[in-house]
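Entry 14. Two folds queued back to back today. First construct below, sequence then structure tokens.
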Amino acid sequence: MALSGLEIFKKLPKTNCKDCGFPTCLAFAMQLAAGKVELEKCPHISEEVKEALSEASQPPILKVEIGAGNDSFVVGEETVMFRHDRTFVNQNAFAVTVEDDMDSSKIEEIIKDVNEIAYERVGQILKLDAICIKNKSKDKDKFLEVTDKVASLTKIPLILVSSDTEILKSAAGKFKENKPLIHAATADNIDFFIALGKETGCPIAVRGKSFEDIAVVTGKMREAGIKNLVIDIGSRDFKDDYYNQIILRMAAIKQKNRLFGYPTIVFPGEMTDDPLKETLIASVFVAKYGSIIVLSNASHQNIFPLMVYRQNIYTDPRRPMQVEQKIYEIGSPDENSPVLITTNFSLTYFIISGEVESSKVPSWLLVMDVEGQSVLTAWAAGKFVPELIAQFVKKSDIAEKVKKKEIVIPGYVAQLQGELEDELGDGWKVVVGPREAGEVPKFLKEYSA
């Protein structure tokens, strides 16, 4: 079990130096116990105390890295039950299933789809994270052959699933440099997996149908010094597995029970034969609380909504997504092109820039830093107001790029028109644009005619 805040405090220097960013050592100790701050924030702790506190300084749910190199992904490190409490840290990983008894052409088709899935949304690339290879054939040579084929076709991490420990040992030994997730250790084969984990260093999935099963395996793994674990609990029944995910999270975060403080893996594809129902189940586990979600297919109509939903859930609610403040050139604008202005909220920028691009009217788009707020929110907060807008426009040097000193403001802040013209001075004219982004193409075509 993790140490309490007071137990940690007793081991700290107690100087209240504030070098950690907190007013007292006690405040720092409480945050450390809650897993909300790193031990390294205190520069005065001795190595001996660091070692003693290392367990307490780790987040309630440990970090596990799967894969190697630039395509690896990290799950875990979570510290809260609910996103609005603080934020979720490492987003869910989506994996697509390959069965080793599939035709070679079918496997190639799946991997091709996985490699090609990449959606750009509000400045981020949404893609799949792993391939889950299942040993349906029960044949070692077939499983190794398919795994080798998949590894040659893609660089994304692998999840290797088999009920035969000897097959897993051969696969883990052959592909250990790729650091695949090996599935799964149980109470019956725990000694084998302890040896395998020490030999290969690969992350290991722990399988059990009850919390007691999981606790036995993770406890023995921890005693052996193996902590890069992922929990697979349940009987592939949606209701039961959903309940298990919540209880695991509560045990790790509320009760600080280290035996359950690991990322989890869920298999919606094994809970239903209906692809749409599978997507619906997967969406539930995005929020509650599947770290790795294994899907049966890579159909774009099923994958895309899940990725968008994941992106929204794992956005920090305290820090709006934002783009850089600068002048954006859309469609090679020149000195006669229109000038528009908006805020640096990512969604606002990408919607407006998309509409400007679709208008086929080359334009200058000024994006002003308002700490990632939308136009109306920034205006209400006093951050998108005439005085500050004028300062930004003048510093941007847009006047050096255009002949006509006109700037188009969003229709929702039309009331700024007169005062902004006064603030800009020097012959600037302020034009009120449309209220809705969808009206931008028509407006620009008429404005530029």
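Second construct, same run, same settings:
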Amino acid sequence: MRSDTDWFKTAGWGVFTHYLAETVANGENTTPEEWNRIVNQFDVERLARQLEEVGAVYYFITIGQISGYYCSPNQTYDSLVGIKPSKCSRRDLIRDLYTALNPLGIKLMVYLPSHAPSRDLTAIERLKCTPTWDAPIWNLKKGYKIVEGIDERLSEFQRNWEAIVREWSTRWGKNVHGWWFDGCYYAEKMYQHSNPPNFQSFAAAAKAGNPDSLVTFNPGVKVPVISLTEYEDYTAGEISLAFPVCPGRWVNGAQFHILGYLGSWWGKGKPRFSIEFVYGYTKDLISKEGVITWDVPIAGDGQIPQPFIEQLKSLKELGSKI
């Protein structure tokens, strides 16, 4: 059931950015008009040149997160949530990005939470994402109404979310090469079941437009790195303050991969490491057939700050063009 990760392993390392209303605007206090203005100013050609300059073979961008603002339109989402004007951008930034990246041989991958936007109460309720076993790590903002008839697995929500993901995947087709799903902290409750909705149906929705697309489900910061399911192709590998040693290429059949941040936090701050550390750790991990993705800040207009460009440029010799 797994997709071929050879190209991913050969790439060795890539770049990730948190392009969100939380990082480039005012989070849930952003207006749809403001969000569209910001997304419209994203210069995809300039970002493509920056990624080419540092030698990146693949690039991750967030579609959206806790605010409920997304950088691509989605009719399924709008029909289920019913917020007007839509908090999905009119511009399909994902489409414009892969149009700019494809000629350069840079593969586009995308990030999305596994659950409804936790700071949008309307979306949470209408998508039926209101677990009775709620915990702060699941929904950061309390006050939503428990929707009647919701089972512990959030089956109706899962089907809604899979439909939303399927629309994006089908539209983008083979231009999107992978998905990183965040927040799969309650895998036993929600996904580890023999009948759908489960990890298998979730992965199938993400691969609807590209069966070769790589998929992973994030269990949170886990050291050593783990794989949650046979239906993921690589490990999510979120790290923060600890930097694990790569055990080799595979973790229970999934490509070993970690995701860390070069700034002071995800998508924020100044570089926290020396170039020597970034280069040395990346080189060691790649030498053991692992893959590492480095998160860096990004501005509203799509520009990566120069100090991070300098760090990434040091890695240029380590990866290989596909």
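Quick look at the second one. The two ends are 23 Å apart (CA to CA). The chain has a mean pLDDT of 95.
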